[in-house]
Design a protein that fits this description.
Elements (H helix, E strand, L loop, with lengths): L7 E3 L4 E6 L2 E6 L4 E5 L1 H12 L3 H11 L4 H17 L4 E3 L2
Antiparallel strand pairs: 1-5, 2-3, 3-4
């Protein structure tokens, strides 16, 4: 699925998230797999799952990290696609 920055990210009920001193562990109860996020990944997860769109998350993150806008856009799109592929997030056109 092509990621549109107007989409909203939500966490399915079967996904558990635990912050461990800035890093995170995710558990997908459907496939019983654990996933780890480093400090940056955890921050991106938090912003993605608490904003109304990927664009809103991007706007927050571009002000927090010293990176080129296009690099963040590509990295964010790839992460969202991977999270969705692993069943850790849902995307909707809200």
């Amino acid at each position: 699925m092509q990621v549109s920055y107007s989409m909203k990210v939500t966490v399915p009920d079967e996904v558990m998230f635990r912050d461990l001193d800035g890093e995170a562990v995710l558990l997908n109860l459907d496939n019983e797999n654990y996933y780890g996020l480093d400090e940056v990944g955890t921050r991106i997860w938090t912003v993605l799952t608490t904003t109304n769109s990927i664009q809103e998350a991007y706007d927050i993150l571009i002000n927090e990290y010293d990176t080129e806008p296009e690099v963040l856009k590509v990295d964010l799109s790839e992460l969202v696609q991977e999270l969705q592929k692993q069943g850790l997030i849902d995307l909707s056109d809200d």
